[in-house]
Write a structure and sequence with these properties.
- The chain has ten helices and no strands.
- With about 200 residues, the chain is an all-alpha fold.
- Helix 1 packs across helix 2 and helix 6 runs antiparallel to helix 10.
- The protein is globular.
- It starts with 6 loop residues before the first helix and ends in a 6-residue tail after the last helix.
């Protein structure tokens, strides 16, 4: 049974969301480089220290769902049913994430990211971190091959599948195509096991 968050946690979450929403609105209205941290804090009616207690950097304001993304992927690997193959579970999660990020409402955010070298760099470092977390989750599964190289490689492929599909003309078809290749690569690493 999940315990509902207390008042303090709800208030912290609401403040975090208010800051993120305010930042995104300002970035979209004025441009990422034209808005400073103090602008966001003032508009959200919070102290700069409060902003930094929720977000480590200006770039993190744009990627406020970063932790959710990482948790969803690792949960897809670790939370799948017994004997459920790894790659189809990861494919389903990537498909859902791609569907979300290719919705019409997300287009302005991706344009903002694509136009900013700082945001593109942050996204790349975030992807590498996600790949390492996913690789660790895969490697921790006693029923899967323990080769660090295989786990890290498949994790990178999965993270890259998200980015490549997001940019494709037909994202769902791209996920299908990419995951056929990932499935083939995974089969090479564990030909006698059900993965």
């Amino acid at each position: 049974m999940t315990v509902p968050p207390g008042r303090r946690e709800r208030k912290k979450a609401a403040t975090r969301q208010k800051i993120a929403d305010t930042a995104l609105r300002l970035f979209l209205e004025r441009g990422y480089d034209a808005v400073g941290i103090r602008d966001v804090a003032a508009e959200a009616d919070v102290a700069v220290t409060t902003l930094f207690s929720h977000f480590a950097s200006k770039e993190a304001l744009v990627f406020e769902r970063d932790d959710d993304f990482e948790q969803r992927l690792t949960q897809a690997a670790t939370g799948r049913a017994p004997h459920e193959p790894l790659i189809p579970a990861l494919r389903r999660e990537i498909q859902a994430l791609v569907r979300h990020c290719t919705a019409d409402s997300a287009a302005p955010i991706w344009r903002l990211i694509d136009e900013s070298p700082a945001l593109r760099e942050y996204e790349e470092s975030m992807r590498l971190r996600h790949a390492e977390s996913l690789a660790t989750a895969i490697a921790a599964d006693p029923d899967l091959p323990q080769s660090t190289t295989a786990c890290r490689t498949i994790a990178r492929f999965v993270i890259d599948a998200y980015s490549l599909a997001r940019e494709a003309a037909d994202p769902e078809a791209a996920v299908d195509e990419i995951f056929r290749m990932i499935e083939a690569a995974w089969a090479v690493t564990c030909p006698t096991r059900r993965a």
